[in-house]
Amino acid sequence: MARDGNGLGDQPRAAASTRGTAEQWIKEGKAATHWTRLSCHRFRANEVRLLLGVIAYNLGNLLRRLVLPLTIQSWSLTSLQQRLFKTGGRLIRHARYFILQLAESHLTPTLFRHIVRRIERLAWHPT
């Protein structure tokens, strides 16, 4: 094992790498859920808004890791919002069924079906 002058070896580099990863997560959370937009005049209101942002970030990460296909798991939360969730569409109701018409976007019908199937597999069925 190579050691630097203080005898710690690779420990400082590993700590810096971990800190860099955490900073990237914080940056992504700020961009996707607007953590820093605490414009209310009361502390409690800002606290609630910050906690809602943290919950939204955690739900987005959970969705990304458990439900999305491997091809798009590496997308940032902002990209997921813009490409998948902010998609225009309308729901048409017929006598016996519904049709979901989506605007042209990154969310293709095949990808949509794939995501819905993976969500269904996560469902808990009590015995």
What do these coordinates show?
With 127 residues, the protein is mostly helical. It has one domain (14-122). Helix content is 55%, strand content 8%. It has helices at residues 11-33, 43-66, 77-85, 109-122; strands at residues 89-93, 98-102. The longest helix is centred in the middle third of the chain and has 24 residues, at 43-66. The model has no long low-confidence stretch (mean pLDDT 77).
Largest sheet: 2 strands, antiparallel
Q: What's the number of extended β-strand segments?
A: 2
How does the helix and strand content classify structurally? Answer: mainly alpha
Order of helices and strands: HHHEEH
Describe the strand arrangement of the main beta sheet, using strand numbers: 1-2
Q: What count of helical segments does DSSP give?
A: 4
Low-confidence stretches: none
Mean pLDDT: 77
- What separation lies between the terminal Cα atoms? 54 Å
Number of folding domains? 1
Overall radius of gyration: 21 Å
